[in-house]
Amino acid sequence: MNSDDQNIPPDDFDDLIAQSEADWPSEPSQPATIIAIPRIRRLLREYSRALIPVRDELRDLDPRSDRELSPLACQVLAAVTAGLRFPPEDPHHSAYRRRLQQAEARNLDQYAIDAFEEVSALIDIIEKARASLHLLDEFDLRLPETWANLPQAMLARSINAHAFAVFGSAVVRS
Q1: Could you count the other beta carbons within 10 Å of the beta carbon of residue 35?
Q2: In terms of pTM, does the model score above 0.85?
Q3: What angle do CA 87, 88, 93 make, to 5 degrees?
C-alpha cells in the first residue's frame, strides 16, 4: 500500500477491515512467558511445608542445648537480628553475614521468639497467597509475566498485593 492509498477513504466496511488488518503489527517472534498456576501452587505449598519444621525448631529452641540449628533457622535468626525481612533480599549484606555467623555459633538464641514470629508470619503470607491464587485462577486473571522467576516469599507477597488490588481486602484477610 503506497502513501496515496492511505489518504483515500474506503468505500465500504470490507475495505475498511482489509486496510486496518494491513496496518496491524505482525505477531511477536517469541511467545510471551506464561506463568503456570499449578507450578506456583506447588512452589508455595512446598515452601510453606519447608518452613513449618523451622518454625517448630525456633519455638522449641532451648538455649542450654548444644544441638546444632538447621541452616534455615540460622538464616531466620540472622535476618531478624539484622533488621531484615526473611528471606533477605540481599544475602550478602554485611550485617546479615555477621549475624549468620553468630547464629551458627548459637549466640543469638535469645532472639528465637522474634525469629519464630517472623517464620509464622511468612507461613501466613504464603497460605493467604495460595488462597488468593485460587481466587485469581477462578476468575481467569493472569499474573504479571515478570513474576515468573521471583523467589517464593516475594512471589507470595506479590500475589497478595495483586489480589488486594483486584478484589479488595477481604481476599487477603485471615
Answers
A1: 16
A2: no
A3: 150
How wide is the angle at C-alpha 28 spanned by C-alphas 25 and 34, nearest 5°?
A: 130
**Percent residues over pLDDT 90 in the chain:** 57
Long-range contacts of 48-52 (CB under 8 A, 24+ apart): 48/123, 48/126, 48/127, 48/130, 51/119, 51/122, 51/123, 51/126, 52/123
Q: Which residues contact 47 (CB under 8 A, 6 or more apart)?
A: 126, 152, 153, 156
Question: Is 2:94 a contact under the CB 8 Å cutoff?
Answer: no
- 5-27 pLDDT, tens digit per residue, is 555 554 554 554 455 444 444 44
What does pLDDT average to over the chain?
83
Cα 50 to Cα 63, 70, 119, 151: the distances in Å are 23, 12, 11, 14
Q: At a CB cut-off of 8 Å and minimum separation 6, what does 4 contact? A: none
Overall average pLDDT of the 66-90 stretch: 93
The dihedral sign for the CA sequence 145, 146, 149, 153: negative
User: Any idea which residue has 550478602 for its cell?
Assistant: 92
